[in-house]
Design goal:
Immunoglobulin-like, TIM Barrel, 2 domains, 7-stranded antiparallel beta sheet, 12 helices, 22% strand, globular
Length: 530
């Protein structure tokens, strides 16, 4: 059994700063879902517990938001639904990370749609009209919220235009879409922050080298070892070169580094098989390294980097999202990349998410940090614990981070992520929850020994345990027989199981705290000086 040995000093000088980039942004499914009362209750809870500052979602301009119609050949705009949603976001202390998409039918060049809710993914029939829409909406925000407020927002153009299912156009047409939008926004105020290309996960081949996605050039199904391939971001270099050539501003670069060999649940490889493998365990760190190096060599070396979607997989029917290893993976990945990007936005905060339609049962592998009923998953606890860390690094090692807050109180995170595994959390596709359970149970336990010196005699510390018995509602759901639709009594049991275990320990008379704990596989321990 492995050991995590930690010895530190309360008065030890700091060795670095903690950038809470994990709290900068979180995702949601689509704008129209944000009109629901239960969605709003859950977001308020996530904001208060996890500290999220921005939120990004699809469908802001889709027909279900009622933004645009044509009357007698002219465009007419309606902002009531957007106003309701944005008023709410600001009222709870959050701001929009605006994603301009999808295409209103009144502007669309075709009828191709995406998702159960049918977002139109075709280019505009008239790029001047697209620019008119963007101008009218941003001017409305300027009037309603004031210029100083909307300067604090981000404006991202479209979502994953490299994928044909999200953009029924070419790369050049997307660049034209960006040019039209960025000129419209910057004409209102040059300090408004605009970026892109919001492309999908990294690839090791030339499937996106041309104007349109070419699935015949996928190569991941041809090799056993995904780590043997050289992975690269999609359209990043081309986008920055285009912007420089056209003298267009770029305030941030965005992309989506899911650690998989495919970008959407259900995608097929050229041989007809499922492209469903997870990459090696440090794929995120390597992808960020490639991105930083590429941007540093570009005409825009100082732009912000926002990874506007991320999770252990890009599938909304993956049971791994519901189980304990997801939490340990989130904590390990975020801490490993402190200070390297400006945001890593988890996709998404709630299972009120309808890309494939409503979830088929109460736990179905949805992306959310909470399920449909608002029950917290282990991933929710992971972000809550990250949010509670201090701003100064006191000590750091494999499986732990010790921080100090401004009030000099220590905040410590310890996680038992099984580094024997050569890849992150594997996918467990609905209705197969057994793979997620088997991966959790295959992990290695660890003995954790923590000693802190130079404390006041009797100084109290709160200890919080997140493991498969405490804070993992899906494990309790399994013990109940995996009910598809829980009754009220079952819901009470699941709700109780979603709570972590908490207890208090005290320093000895000599000012030393000694804590010895047996950590289960993928368990997380939060230690807080009280």
């Amino acid at each position: 059994m492995k050991e995590i040995i930690i010895n530190t000093d309360k008065n030890k000088p700091g060795i670095g700063k903690v950038k809470h980039y994990w709290s900068n942004c979180v995702g949601a499914g689509r704008a129209c879902e944000g009109l629901r009362a239960d969605w709003r209750r859950q977001l308020r809870e996530a904001r208060e517990a996890c500290g999220f500052r921005y939120i990004r979602f699809h469908g802001l301009l889709s027909d279900d938001m009622g933004v645009c119609i044509r009357e007698n050949g002219s465009l007419r705009f309606h902002w009531q639904y957007i106003d309701s949603l944005f008023d709410f976001l600001l009222s709870i202390g959050m701001r929009p990370f605006v994603e301009f998409g999808f295409m209103p039918s009144a502007l669309a060049s075709g009828e191709t749609t995406m998702f159960w809710w049918k977002g139109n993914v075709t280019p505009p029939s008239d790029y001047d009209a697209w620019g008119e829409l963007i101008t009218a909406l941003v001017l409305h925000w300027k009037e309603r919220y004031g210029l100083e407020e909307i300067r604090k927002w981000y404006y991202e153009i479209w979502n994953e235009p490299d994928l044909s299912v999200f953009w029924d156009g070419s790369r050049s047409e997307y660049f034209r879409l960006y040019e039209s939008a960025v000129r419209a926004v910057k004409a209102i105020d040059p300090k408004l922050r605009v970026g892109g290309p919001a492309t999908s996960n990294f690839v090791p081949d030339d499937r996106f080298a041309g104007e349109r996605e070419d699935q015949s050039k996928h190569k991941t199904h041809l090799v056993e070892d995904l780590e043997s391939l050289e992975w690269k971001g999609v359209w990043i270099q081309e986008f920055l070169e285009f912007a420089a050539d056209r003298n267009l501003p770029v305030d941030f670069v965005s992309t989506h580094p899911y650690p998989t060999d495919f970008a959407l649940g259900g995608q097929k490889s050229p041989d007809g098989g499922m492209a469903g493998r997870t990459r090696y365990v440090r794929a995120l760190r390597d992808d960020i390294g490639w991105l930083k190096e590429t941007i540093a060599k570009s005409p825009f070396p100082d732009v912000e980097i926002h990874l506007t979607e991320w999770s252990s997989s890009p599938c909304s029917r993956d049971y791994s999202h519901d189980f304990l290893p997801e939490a340990s993976y989130i904590i390990r990945s975020n801490i490993e990349n402190i200070g390297r990007v400006d945001s890593l936005s988890y996709w998404v905060f709630t299972d009120i998410f309808e890309e494939e339609g409503p979830g088929p049962q109460d736990f179905h592998g949805g992306f959310g940090l909470m399920n449909l009923q608002g029950i917290r998953k282990p991933s929710f606890h992971a972000y809550r614990m990250l949010h509670e860390l201090g701003d100064e690094i006191v000590d750091q090692g494999e499986g732990y981070l010790i921080t100090r807050r401004a009030d000099q109180k220590l905040r410590i995170l310890i996680w038992n992520y099984d580094m024997r595994k050569d890849r992150p959390v594997p996918m467990s596709m609905y209705p197969d929850y057994h793979t997620a359970e088997a991966f959790r149970d295959s992990g290695e336990e660890a003995y954790m020994n923590l000693e802190i010196s130079h404390l006041a005699s009797g100084q109290a510390f709160g200890v919080e345990v997140l493991d498969k018995e405490h804070g993992c509602a899906a494990a309790a759901w399994g013990k109940l027989g995996y009910p598809a639709n829980m009754n009220q009594e079952q819901m009470k049991v699941i709700k109780a199981a979603s709570e972590t275990r908490n207890y208090v320990v005290q320093a000895q008379e000599n000012g030393s705290l000694k804590l010895n704990v047996k950590l289960g596989a993928y368990a997380v321990l939060a230690v807080r000086e009280l």
